[in-house]
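User: I'm writing a short report section on ligand binding and want a predicted complex to refer to. Could you take this sequence and flavin-adenine dinucleotide and write out the structure as tokens? A short remark afterwards would be nice.
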Amino acid sequence: MRMPDPDADVIARRAAIARALRRIVPGEGVIVDEDALRAYECDGLSAYRQPPLIVVLPSTTEQVSTVLRYCHDNGVKIVPRGAGTSLSGGALPLADAVTLGLGKFNRILDIDIENRCVVAQPGVTNLAITTAVQDQGFYYAPDPSSQIACSIGGNVAENAGGVHCLKYGLTTNNLLGVEMVLMTGEVIRLGGKHLDPGGYDLMGVVTGSEGLLGVITEVTVRILRAPETARAVLMGFPDTDSAAATVADIIARGIIPAGLEMMDKPAIHAAEDFVHADYPLDVEALLICELDGPEAEVTHLIERVEAIARDKGATSLRVSTSDAERALFWAGRKAAFPAVGRISPDYYCMDGTIPRHALPTVLKRTAEMSTRYGLRCANVFHAGDGNLHPLILFDANVPDELERAEAFGAEILKLCVEVGGVLTGEHGVGVEKRDLMGEMFSDIDLQQQQRLKCAFDPGQFLNPGKVFPTLHRCAELGRMHLSGGSMPFPDIPRF
Ligand SMILES: Cc1cc2nc3c(=O)[nH]c(=O)nc-3n(C[C@H](O)[C@H](O)[C@H](O)COP(=O)(O)OP(=O)(O)OC[C@H]3O[C@@H](n4cnc5c(N)ncnc54)[C@H](O)[C@@H]3O)c2cc1C
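Assistant: Sure. The structure tokens for the complex follow:
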């Protein structure tokens, strides 16, 4: 993985930068000790590691603003970091950059049941939002499997999804407002408690921007009333094709489950050994389908889903009879990544999205690649959204296995694009998919996206080396930048 060459001048100024940061964030908010920096050297994509220059842990928006302004004025890059669970290397440090951790922004600021929203600091965990409102009968719908650890700020930066996003949308569909600090230290607010902010959809731009546009310091999210009933159906199939056909048919018939997830045999066995969710072990594929809403509707929809599954050849069918049993069905799915971590020294989690009809083709070709690369692969994914998560099993201590895993993963993602899909569903581009962006976007598309980046961060200080395969200087992209009160090309008419 090639990262931008570190700036030797910045590295030489490390002690002075640390002193300046300590003046802004006193106490224990600045980390320079080599051992302590190790804790930040990677995120969830642990194949790539790099200790940061310095870690700074501010606790107020004002401190974030002053840190960014200082770094901007002194030519120092910034890598924002939430909980560090990114699977695409978005929070991977740079040798010449300050990692700015949001862990101290851990307070829920306002629970506003009347307006159905919660205002939280970005370091609050995803699950803590639901926990804070569930006694009053509400919840926050997007539920990444990492929800006990990942931060709501990181969710916004990655546009995170989860098993309930099929029906309730991803982070972007549940976000109402953000406060964000620009690299110059300016603080902006987008959206709020109200719906439909005027002007361009800048919040849409910021959601999924992977720390490249600014540092999010406050988040307002929509909360939903917990459904009257929720039940899950566990369906086992003799092959992945019949499971995939069931997924396609459920959606084609106009049923929108709250969640519709698939696991293949290696994933089922790994999850069962870890969590003991009582999954059937004699099947090749498992679907978990959750229906929620009024009791009568759920009962009706469950009957329809069961009929579809039987028609497609399901060999086992179980409907949850209590909330505890429903939670157990999900426990295996939600713990599938760590479960796979128990059966292999390392794994590489991919994240491509495809049109649902392509599921059987892509799963079959992934199995062929698995044989060709000589690496096992477990599949566990958001089948209803066509969002795949092949987990490639490898051992980094075996020479060339990481390289083979990377090549295998790249081939899967190229296949996703080939069948009409996209490189990422919810884990972001980061460093992992950066060099594959050309598979999906033309040079013109990519340059246009970079112009947007330049509008927010013309000096390219924020998270460089992520997302874009080529670093263009903003000047090359024809940016209009007001500097020292004078604008270039003053003869051009402006309105
Ligand atoms: C076991 C496991 C299961 C997972 N399951 C899912 C899943 O089901 N769905 C899903 O979508 N993801 C999943 N993920 C991936 C990950 O949890 C999400 O991408 C999550 O949103 C990252 O949040 P974080 O706080 O850990 O962010 P980090 O990893 O710290 O950062 C991620 C990116 O966001 C930027 N960033 C973080 N905070 C801010 C901020 N305040 N302002 C600006 N930029 C910021 C960083 O620069 C980086 O680019 C999983 C990860 C693991 C390890």
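A remark for your report: The longest strand covers residues 229-237. Residues 43-44, 79-87, 90-91, 102, 122, 144-146, 150-151, 153-155, 157-158, 160-162, 210-211, 215-216, 337, 426-427, 463 surround flavin-adenine dinucleotide (CB under 6 Å).
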